[in-house]
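Re: the 204-residue chain
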Amino acid sequence: MVDIILTLKFFDSIDYLPTRASVLDFFITKDISKQYKRDEINEEIWKLAKSGKIVLFDDIYLGLPGWNFEEKLAAHMNRITDSKVILKKFKKYTKYFKFMKAIDLVGIYGKNSEKNFCILNSEFSRFDKLILKFLGIKDPIIIYTSNLKVENKNFKTAYYLLKMPIAYTKPGIYEKFIFKNPWIFDYFGNYPVDKISLNYKVVL
C-alpha cells in the first residue's frame, strides 16, 4: 500500500520515529474520501515488512530502509524528555493562568514544543501581559474563541494540533477547537475521534 510509505515519509519529514499505533492514527491516504479499517492497514504493514519495503525496529517502531534507527530513536526520546520538562513547568503556571480572564487554553506547540499556543476569549489585558512577561512567555500563537479557525492548513499543522500537550484549559475548549477545524481530518481521516478527549493526551 503506497499510502503507508507516504505516511512514513511524512513522519520522516517531521523527524519523528513512529510506532505502529502512530501509523494507524496518522495514516495518510491520497484518497481523502476513504477511510481504511485498522485491520486492513495492519495487514498491509506486515506484508510490506516481510517484503523489506518497510522496517520494524525493536518490535515497536516502523520506518523505511536506510533510516538510522538508533539516531532517530535517540533524537525522538530527547524531544519527549524536553517536552515533558516544558509541560511540567507550564502546569506549575496554572495558578497564574486562572487569574488571566482572557485565557481559555494554553498548549505547547511544534516539533520541539518550541511555541506557546493560546486560545483566548478576549484580548490580553495590561495585567495579563505583565504576567506573561513574568512567566517568560513571548509571542504565543493566538486563536480567539469567537472564531477558533486555523488559517495555516497543512499536514504538519494538523499533526501538531492533534498531538499538542495541554498545560491549562477550561472544560471542553480543546475538543470544541478541534471540531471547529474539520479540515484536520481531511489530512488524517483515520484519526480516532475518541482520542481528541484530553483524557488520552500524552507527550509523545
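Residues 69-91 form the longest helix (23 residues).
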